[in-house]
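Feature request disguised as a bug: please show the residue count (225) next to AsnC family transcriptional regulator in the output. Example input:
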Amino acid sequence: MARNGKLAEDLVQALERDIVTGMLQPGDRLDERGLSERFNVSRTPVREALQSLARSGLVATLPRRGTVVASITVGELIEMFEVMAELEAMCARLAARRMARADIDRLYALSAECDALRGQVDADAYYAANVRFHEAIYAGCRNSYLERQTKTVRNRLSPYRRLQLHRPGRVEKSNNEHADILQAIASGKADQAADLMRAHLAVQGEALNDLLAMVPRAYLEPLAS
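Example output, currently without the count:
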């Protein structure tokens, strides 16, 4: 059973990666047999992995269609971004109070990675560096439960957060906001760090309209049963 559990965890990570990078898109069917053959495992860990992904909202089980990559409604998307902003604000607040000097130095290095990529055309490369920067702040909050919950919501929103970076000027703006957040954390200004992170994650007004215009319709329309 322990081996199946480890295999299931590995499968969850692999399928999450496929979903958040767009290799698997909303409506794509996740067939147990096909996944079992692809990863060279039995169906038991595949079934466990799909159940885990269903709990996180990344996949859904539909009548007559089986398990598919989930879509999301516009209302749900807005609500999840609100929750994401508050979770990350909490992480930033606690990180400003709890991060050790070595962790802050690493955060500076990760910020420098983002800065080096901001002028490149490849927004996806910047996104990967952006994830590392944010995850360092999650870890710096020294609250493992909060870190796990924040990553869960982040993973669910990853396709949409990735798309945001393709908006003209967004990478440059994101990078500048990172610098402000980092300075607040390094200075131990907890409330300021939280406010800056909340604003960094907020999607409203023109930013929301631009995001909705960029998202493929399949990502936002509820899947037909």
